[in-house]
Amino acid sequence: MLLLFSMKSRDKLNIAVLGAGSWGGTLAYHLSKKNYNVLIWTFSTEEFKNLSQNRTLLRPAKLKFNKYIKITNNISDIKDSEVIIIAVPGKAFESTIKRVTKLKLKPNCIFISATKGIDSHCHRPSQLLTKYLKKYNFAILSGPNIALDVLSNSPAISVIACKNKAVGLKLQSILSTKNFRIYTNTDATGIEIAGALKNVIAIASGMCDGFGFNISSKAALISRGLIEIGKVAVAEGAKSETLLSAAGIGDLIATCCSPNSRNYKVGYALAKGKKLKNILHELGEVAEGVETVKSMHKLVKKHKIKTPIADAVYEIIVKNKNPKTVLKQLLNRPLPKQEIEL
Length: 342
Description:
- With 342 residues, the chain is an alpha/beta fold.
- It has helices at 22-32, 45-54, 93-100, 125-132, 147-150, 165-175, 188-210, 215-235, 246-257, 262-271, 276-283, 288-303, 308-317, 323-331; strands spanning 14-18, 37-41, 56-57, 63-64, 69-72, 83-86, 110-113, 137-142, 156-161, 180-185.
- The strands form two sheets. An eight-stranded mixed beta sheet has the order 5-2-1-6-7-8-9-10, with helices on both faces.
């Protein structure tokens, strides 16, 4: 399908962002600064009321919306959008897509998944988009993008993965700014798996710092974590070189090292002895790694591969094991015969 809309008049381009969390709100704010017409949809009545009354981004930072942003809690309002960005939590992705299928959308509409998660059935966003909205072009947005950092003036990059190269280049133009550079890729599988599973390793990284370990420990964790992500990604059909991209190692480093990462915060608090239920309540937002570790566990069993770090996180998150006990078991396991084992 060819891209039918023109990029000559930015103010004519209508973009909808489904989800008003940290990342959805950040993307909406970012795009409105380029003078696109941006519609934010939220499922929450309370969130809709707050956003409408205050016209202020609530998280990750309080920023006033400009005139190009509108807010709605009526999903049918997105029907005139040329670009629809889905930035809801992974567990809400399929239900949101099902609601969209009931709408009469523009035939040239393009979807962008900005959701970094794998649902409880091990479905990735691209698989769900193919299932329910196969007649539309879609892309995957992922990269080393801590929402608070993207809102700053510091240089940042991200990746758009799209099978249709022409569509990918158009989206690159739409999303890019001087300080936010977008690169293109065609490996949606690799981009999605790397973006989702790095959240599991980020929980472990938070625990690493929570235990007071040094940078050598962090480097060991990140390097071993990348190997585990790579094993699953390749087993699922991804290209190994994708793990070296901004959406692979770049995203992993950012999420494992930033105290603003929700998954990092979960791991840090767990190492300090807090209960998961209390941590998530205080966080007030979704930490994707908490759910994704369950899906990763299923994929690991499916492909019969070894992922000791992810297994340790699973023991702590799902089986409620003591982090110090699990750490001891992790470090005392038999030495491998070679660095990278299946």
